[in-house]
Design goal:
By secondary structure, chain A is of the alpha/beta class. Chain A has eleven helices and ten strands. Chain B has 228 residues and is an alpha/beta fold. In chain B, strands 3-2-1-4-5 form a five-stranded mixed beta sheet, with helices on both faces. A five-stranded mixed beta sheet of chain B has the order 8-7-6-9-10, sandwiched between helices. Chain B is globular and about 50 Å long. Chain B starts with a strand and ends in a 32-residue tail after the last helix. Classes of the chains: A alpha/beta (352), B alpha/beta (228).
Chain lengths: 352, 228
């Protein structure tokens, strides 16, 4: 069984063909970097226009590169939320039209579920597992009990972790996207030079907060000696910031491991997913945590952590083999929590 | 020739099937939002009513704007997806020419047609056509006080969901114009008729959107960098 997956929820226009035998037959990603760089961040209308321009070419390339074209495609999956709705609509309408024209089932995929299930494509991880989902839009700890079955243990009460990376990069003039830029600049930096806060570290539960860290980065930049910023300052600040983030993620995830173990004694894996999971320093830190706590560790290759079509196609495979398909009247969802019953995090803002 | 036309670019959702150049099935609904849910089921019903399947289609036609950015992308994404999967040509028709075509021939003969569409902003989407619907100007986004320069000279009939605003602005500038007795928003029937009257583009050459406005976005000073 093969599923075509389409991803258009942020700034990557992507499509892929994946089989139920866990083969990624094609995986085409168009990054809209040049479109957003002048704005130092993702502009929703710019993204939506670029998705419309690119999605046809990207889908065709994914079909061509899969080696089978339309032959053997059994269903079409598309990210239907959460995300920037203008882009989501482009992917959903493209997916619906392709499915209708070819007489195939359509599967509306939750973007977060696609990230959450990627470790089953790459590492065949068995349910239940503990998931740390870290991206530009999200920072959550979840128990993954099965397809469509999630229990949220913790979430950010303000900014997403990737957002903190992007804003740090922007303030330092490192450009967009910020995550890879901060990671590169941090190499060789002195992580001990600047004292930055570890918000919520040591508190009960496993929620996150990053806005105070972001503010302190701003104050640190403003407090540097007059004159142009030195490369040394940028490297040290990026290293200090990155280790503060890693500290917080490791400490909060450690608490989540206790909760997960209590609820799922037979669960044995920590999975990290989302764009921030492409950061090598954070991967290494969390891998050490998992080893220390006697858990297996799975994190997809960086290209499958950042937004891609293969994760959507795989989520489509997972849902399709359970008989979960959607009508062509499916309404895309700009907000679509994995655990809609989760209580609101204490102190959380309206967007959290 | 079996042609499917549809429109979601403004405040409606419509689909029309033409078989052998004649209208075989049609549906239309007014809706300010929700086209992403309504469009594909509506197309399926129109095809069923015409006894047609997707695989029977020879060509597609779709509105490309100007209109609501989200709405025109819904129609264009669907049209491009269908064209890709079916390997058929897809014609792009502007909302302005589709609205102009709905003006009865007797009403426009010997005069000119101004189409004015609601942009949901301060300005209007406008285009001038002659009495035979040949375009006299390019599609444009204009403030109402800029209409006089566009519309001066000769009898004028105004169509579109912003016709009342346009007529009022023209009257203020001393230009008499009357409202067309025609729907103010595009319909798939007009979209299909226009496409059928033209040469179809080659397969694989998808129509592009007409936004008439750059994205709302501000370039941060120094790219957001706090210090030199």
């Amino acid at each position: 069984m093969r599923v075509l997956g389409i991803e258009t929820s942020c700034d990557e226009t992507a499509a892929a063909v994946v089989s139920d035998g866990r083969d990624v037959l094609s995986n085409v990603v168009h990054q809209q970097l040049a479109d957003h760089q002048p704005f130092a961040g993702v502009v929703p209308e710019v993204a939506a226009r670029a998705h419309l321009d690119q999605v046809g070419r990207v889908v065709q390339a994914a079909l061509d590169q899969s080696g089978g074209g339309w032959d053997g495609i059994d269903a079409v999956a598309a990210t239907a939320g959460p995300g920037l709705i203008g882009g989501v609509l482009v992917g959903v309408m493209t997916g619906k039209a392709l499915a209708a024209a070819r007489g195939l089932p359509f599967i509306a995929v939750n973007h977060l579920e696609a990230h959450a299930l990627t470790a089953r494509l790459t590492d065949d991880v068995q349910f239940p597992y503990l998931l740390l989902l870290v991206s530009g839009g999200h920072c959550q700890l979840l128990e993954v009990e099965g397809v469509g079955r999630y229990r949220r243990l913790g979430t950010t009460i303000d900014d997403a972790v990737g957002e903190a990376f992007d804003k740090t990069a922007k303030m330092l003039g490192l450009g967009y996207p910020g995550g890879p830029a901060v990671e590169a600049a941090a190499k060789g930096g002195d992580a001990g030079r600047f004292e930055l806060p570890r918000p919520l570290k040591g508190r009960d539960g496993c929620d996150f907060s990053f806005s105070g860290l972001k503010t302190r980065v701003r104050m640190t930049i403003e407090g540097l000696p007059p004159g142009p910023m030195q490369d040394r300052d940028i490297a040290d600040l990026c290293a200090s910031f990155q280790v503060a983030v890693a500290d917080v993620l490791a400490e909060r995830t450690g608490r989540a491991i206790d909760m997960f173990r209590a609820a799922h004694p037979r669960g044995r894996t920590l999975v990290v997913a989302g764009g921030v999971a492409a950061n090598q320093a954070i991967r290494t830190r969390l891998q050490a945590l998992a080893a220390d706590r006697g858990l297996g560790f799975a994190v997809p290759a960086p290209a499958l952590c950042t937004d891609n079509g293969a994760m959507v196609a795989w989520a489509g495979v997972e849902r399709f083999r359970l008989g979960l398909t959607d009508g062509l009247d499916f309404r895309p969802r700009p907000r679509w929590p994995l655990d809609p019953d989760a209580p609101k995090a204490i102190g959380a803002g309206v967007k959290a | 020739m079996k042609l499917l036309a549809f429109d979601t670019a403004t405040t409606g959702c419509s689909a029309a099937l033409f078989l052998g150049g004649r209208l075989a099935a049609h549906q239309a609904a007014a809706m300010a939002r929700g086209q992403s849910e309504a469009l594909m089921p509506m197309i399926a019903e129109v095809l069923a009513e015409g006894g047609c399947s997707y695989g029977d289609l020879d060509a597609l036609a779709v509105t490309v704007g100007p209109g609501a950015f989200t709405g025109l992308r819904i129609g264009l994404s669907a049209a491009r997806g269908l064209a890709l999967a079916l390997a058929v040509p897809c014609a792009g028709v502007t909302t302005l020419e589709a609205v102009a075509r709905a003006v009865p021939e007797t009403a426009r003969a010997g005069g000119r047609v101004l189409v004015a569409l609601d942009s949901k902003r301060a300005d209007l989407y406008v285009q001038m056509f002659d009495g035979d619907l040949a375009p006299l100007t390019e599609p444009a986004a204009l403030m109402a006080d800029g209409l006089a320069a566009l519309a001066a000279g000769g009898p004028l009939i105004v169509a579109g969901d912003a016709a009342a605003r346009a007529i009022e602005a023209l009257a203020g500038a001393g230009i008499a114009a009357r409202a067309a007795d025609a729907p103010g928003v595009p319909d798939a029937i007009m979209v299909g008729e226009i496409a059928l009257a033209r040469a179809l583009p080659p397969v694989g050459q998808a129509p592009g959107p007409i936004y008439l406005r750059p994205p709302d976005a501000v370039r941060p000073k120094d790219g957001g960098r706090l210090r030199p």
